[in-house]
Amino acid sequence: MAVPVVPVHADPSKTQRSLVQAVQAAPPAAWSRGAPTAWSPAPANLVVPQDSPYHYQGPSINSRADVHRGVGLGVTATACPADRSVLAPKEQDYVLMEKITARDGTPLDVIAGPQAGDPVSEGPHPVVGRLVLGGGQQSALCRLTYTVIVRRCGPAPPLSTPAGLTGLTGTSPRCVAGTAWGSRCHYRCPRRDLVLRGDKWVVCGDDLRWHGRPPVCTGEFLRFSPPQSK
């Protein structure tokens, strides 16, 4: 499989949009069920792990101009954590917040934003934290954006009901994770005298399409044989 290259722009917001577009266009083979896949963009450069489907091919980040600026007691620059984009696992429309660390492994004490272990919904989330440096002699405030990306299908297929029946409720399917990748949606007829034809379940597949026959509720009545007299 060819490895896509995410374009890097001087404007970090453009780089972020390129990343989201690359994720949405990714082939099914690029994703697997389990823990989130993550990337960490630096201020003007995108750094992607070597084993990621999206490997950044560009200049190395090794100058003081490439690190985030820390604001604190005598700290002019420090390796604050970079902005982070995380792909939600299959069958989930959220992720569990991971523990954020600086580039040298120093843990970030989060004072605003989601904490480690918290469920984090789709979209960008600002995080502000404090780094304690130099054996506790110095500290720095760091600010980053934690973005959760959810791959989605379109709206689930509607449940068809007999023509002429009005005022029916409960025709929308119940989905375990909305329209998120891997979500399963269950259908049932809104009245007991209607019969479901088709699949009771549809699934948002790896190709971000719904799989399963669109169900239909027909106006056929359930027929039961009367008990025979002895």
Q: What this model shows, in words?
A:
Keywords: Disulfide bond, Sushi. This protein has 230 residues and is mainly β. Among the domains are: 84-149, no CATH class; 151-223, Complement Module, domain 1 (Ribbon). Helices cover 6% and strands 27% of the residues. It is built from one helix and 15 strands. It has one helix at 12-24; strands spanning 37-41, 46-47, 71-72, 84-87, 94-96, 109-112, 119-121, 123-133, 138-149, 174-175, 184-186, 195-197, 201-204, 210-211, 216-218. Strands 1, 2, 3, 4, 6, 8 and 9 form a seven-stranded mixed sheet that branches. A four-stranded antiparallel sheet has the order 10-11-13-14, with no helix packed on it. Strands 5-7 form a two-stranded antiparallel ribbon. Strand 1 and strand 2 (46-47) form a beta hairpin. It is elongated, with a radius of gyration of 25 Å. Residues 1-6, 27-77 and 221-225 have low confidence and may be disordered.
